[in-house]
Amino acid sequence: MGEAPAPPVPDTRRRPPVRTWLQPAVIALVLAVAFIGCYIGLQRDPQPHHVPIAVTGQELAARMGGALGDSVEVHPAVDAGAARRALERHEVSAALSEGPGGRLHLEIAGAYGPSTTSAVKSLVGAYAEGARRQVTTEDVVPLTRYDSRGLAGFYLAFGVTLAGFVLAQNALGLAGLLRLRHRLWLLCAVSAAVGTVAAILAGPVLGAVPAPIVPLAFTLTLLAAAAAFATKLLGTYLGPVGVPAATLLLLTVGNSTSGAAISADLLPPAAHAVSALLPPGAAVRAITDLGYFHGARVTGPLVTLAAWAVTAALLVALRSRLHRTAADS
């Protein structure tokens, strides 16, 4: 008898499917275009849109609104004190009053960042020039000494968001080693550690964020959890595309529209609409409010951050439960 024929040897030289090459290339190109388009595109020509300004006196308010149109949103105030209180409560971006001899007195909040204060001074200056008035400017909520450019809140939110993103990316790789509940507890615990360490570093250590340490740590913990659970959610439901999708949502669109580098009042309408709804934008608002405005309007941003974290965690747990139910049936 002759020898049995040898089993066929698989052709290892066969080319992989086109999708194997195409998917990473497309993802890289999309992320590059999105990152450059968002960060550079939004800074090309920022224009003020409905910047809220408290103005004393009905006559001056009417003249300001008529002269500046949609660039400002005039909030009439009964007197200069009321206008200033509205600024200090984070309700408006500036306060304008009229003094003796028709001189205008503009009060700004440097805590809003250079882009907002520059836009407000330009708008009021243009009105004053047309009306042949003189303007004096006073910064009633200045930036802290170690945050002269007003970007500490942005970098703090960016760093915590990045930490939450990387945390979830690593947790996705532990699916075969840890049960889901252990991975979820890991995300919660490390988010709390990241938020606490970041608050201590940015606040007492570096002195760049003058917010109370406990509320700041709580805010940053929520931000880290929101970023981590959102990334975990996208990775769970979308598979290999989930992490790039989280990069696009959180690190690209979320951070570029957060309102720190470019004020939300100067963003295009579409970017302004999503700014406060994404975790980085909500966190920047909360950090600014806690640091400079005594937490007057911090509730909304905190609710947004908590909603992202809780909703994403529940959806991840729901998918796992549905898979177990399907496997048992």
Structural class: alpha/beta
Give the % helix.
55-70%
Quantity of strands, as a count: 5
Mean pLDDT: 89
| Gyration radius from CA atoms, angstroms | 26 Å
Biggest sheet: strands side by side, in what order?
Answer: 2-1-3-4-5
* SSE string: HEHEHEEHEHHHHHHH
Residue stretches low in confidence (pLDDT < 50, at least 5 long) are: none
Main beta sheet: strand number and arrangement? Answer: 5 strands, mixed
Shape: elongated
H/I helix tally = 11
Approximate strand percentage: 5-15%
Amino-to-carboxy terminus distance: 52 Å
Question: What does this entry look like structurally?
Answer:
This protein is an alpha/beta fold and 329 residues long. Helices cover 61% and strands 8% of the residues. It is built from 11 helices and 5 strands; from the N terminus they run αβαβαββαβααααααα. Helix 2 links the parallel strand 1 and strand 2. The protein is elongated, with a radius of gyration of 26 Å. The protein starts with 17 loop residues before the first helix and ends with a helix. The model has no long low-confidence stretch (mean pLDDT 89).
How are the secondary structure elements laid out?
Elements: H1 18-41, E1 51-56, H2 58-68, E2 72-77, H3 80-88, E3 94-98, E4 104-108, H4 114-131, E5 135-139, H5 152-172, H6 180-205, H7 213-238, H8 242-256, H9 269-275, H10 279-292, H11 299-328
Parallel strand pairs: 1-2, 1-3, 4-5
Antiparallel strand pairs: 3-4
Helix pairs in contact: 1-8, 5-6, 5-7, 5-8, 5-10, 6-7, 7-8, 7-10, 7-11, 10-11
Keywords:
329 residues; alpha/beta; five-stranded mixed beta sheet; 5 strands; 8% strand
